[in-house]
Amino acid sequence: MKALNVTKCSTKKSSEFVQRHILNGLIVHPELPDWHWHQYKSVHKKAYATPHHELEALTKWLDNLYLVAQHNRDFLLGKQSYSLHLNLFGDLDVKEYFDKFLKLFRTIPLFDPAEDRHKTAYRNSLHNAVPKSFDWRSKGFKPKLEQQHECGACYAFAVAHALQAQLYRRHGFWGELSPQQIIDCSSKDGNAGCDGGSLRGALRYAAREGLITESQYPYVGKDSTCKYNKFLVRVRARRWATLPYGDEEAVERALATVGPLAVAVNAAPFTFQLYRSGIYDDLFCTSWQLNHAMLLVGYTPDYWILLNWWGKNWGENGYMRIRRGLNRCGVTNLATYVEL
After folding, report:
1. pLDDT tens, position by position, 100-137
2. Where is the Peptidase C1A papain C-terminal domain (predicted)?
């Protein structure tokens, strides 16, 4: 690995060039100025315990820079449908990223009386016509962009946001609901706080106890003691179910007629980790390994639209588009709807 050289690219013109192209991962300069690394740390609020830890992070960051640049060259040539960049995960290798952030528990879509008795909503929508394209954002549902930090709470965010969407669908507004409550209070349902959990466990909890607003039970990004108060409950899940495994038509229909869906995806590939924009279509994003939960908010004939919890600097301002038709990343394997 070549050391950084601060004597290069020091002019204003060169600085603008580096800012525009290297920061975006479009090219790799053979002697990258070290202020670019400092800028990355500043933008993403990175701090390291020791110089040794920072050197390790820098090494991973440079490795990722080369991967991003190689991929984005193909993107500019029209060989890839999506671009990458050095986002908040730019200083992590794939293993570290996986271990810290992808903690959705594996669940098998078997018959479960606790949920399958609630499948009336899907059955009732079987004969409803749905549009070729649909996006709940265009209907006004635009929740604030969340950042889960180093807490494996994707399952809690997905369920809280699915319920927020139902509030919006019914009342025309939503109150931000508390993922922290699910993190702290749903161990009885098989969840493990920031060490992970399942959509099913979070939904069982939300159906039994209901959720408090985030303003009354704020997110802290770590495990805490349960502070549940039944008198503060804002909403309770009444009906919920997992849709038929891998059925794109069922997912499309439920999304358009019932509301945004909590879904499980395979977020393990480095291209997912460093995704920036475009229609994600990595053939290595298989459908059998589901390790992260997101909210499905829209579709077109070509792609799904999903909301993530990794802040506005990941993806397309916190959102992602994934290719349809191939069940890329397993989007339709464990899609779950909820109703009030």
Report:
1. 999 999 876 544 555 555 455 556 556 678 999 999 99
2. 130-339
Contact 182, 338 (CB under 8 A): no
In the chain, count of helices (H) and strands (E)? Answer: 11, 11
Do 57 and 48 touch, CB atoms closer than 8 A?
A: yes
Check residues 266 and 1 and name the one with the higher pLDDT: 266
**Is the Cβ–Cβ distance between 94 and 289 less than 8 Å?**
no
Regarding pTM above 0.70, the answer is yes
pLDDT digits over 166-179, tens only? 999 999 887 899 99
CB distance 303 to 227 below 8 Å? no
What is d(CA 151, CA 322) in angstroms, rounded to the nearest whole number? 24
The sign of the CA dihedral 145, 107, 239, 131 is: positive
Mean pLDDT of 229-253: 94
Cα separation, 268 vs 142, in Å, equals: 26
Confidence of residue 5 (pLDDT cuts 50, 70, 90): very low
**What is the CATH superfamily name and number for domain 100-339?**
Cysteine proteinases (3.90.70.10)
pLDDT tens string 142-164: 999 999 999 999 999 999 999 99
- H-assigned helices in the chain: 12-17, 34-43, 51-76, 94-101, 113-116, 120-124, 154-171, 179-185, 199-209, 248-257, 270-273
3-state DSSP assignment of residue 188: helix
Name the residue ranges covered by the structural domains of the chain: 12-80, 100-339
End-to-end CA distance of the chain: 55
Q: What is the mean pLDDT of the chain?
A: 88
Give the C-alpha distances (Å, rounded to integers) separating 261 from 143, 256, 306. Answer: 14, 10, 9
Active site residues: 154, 292, 308
Q: Report how far apart, in Å, the C-alpha atoms of 296 and of each of 29, 53, 116, 316 are.
A: 38, 37, 21, 14
What SS3 state is found at 240? strand
Checking if the pLDDT of 233 tops 70, the result is yes
